[in-house]
Amino acid sequence: YFIILLLQLTLVSCGDSPKQLFETAEFEMLQTNYPHATKLYQEIIDKHPSSDFVEKSRERLEEIRVKQLK
Fold it and tell me: How far, CA to CA in Å, does 62 sit from each of 1, 7, 35?
C-alpha cells in the first residue's frame, strides 16, 4: 500500500503548472542537475509566457550559464 501511495504522490507532483515546474527546477538546481533545471525553466518560459515565474526562470537560466562557464 505504501508503494502505491508513494507512486501517486510522485505522479501528482509531476504536474506542469508553472509553480510546480519552478519548484522542481529549484530542487534540481540544489542538486546541481543543471541540464534538467534548464529544461524546466525553459519550459516555463515557452509554455507559460504570462506566468509570474518567467522572469525568475530567465534569471536562473543566466545563473546556470555563468556556473557552466567556470
Answer: 43, 34, 13
Residue 59: pLDDT band (50, 70, 90) is very high
Grid cell listed for 41: 525553466
Average pLDDT, the chain: 84
Within its chain, how far is the Cα of 9 from the centroid? Answer: 17
Within 8 A by CB and 6+ apart from 36, the residues are 25, 28
Stated length of the chain: 70
pTM: 0.78
- Cβ 28 vs Cβ 36: under 8 Å: yes
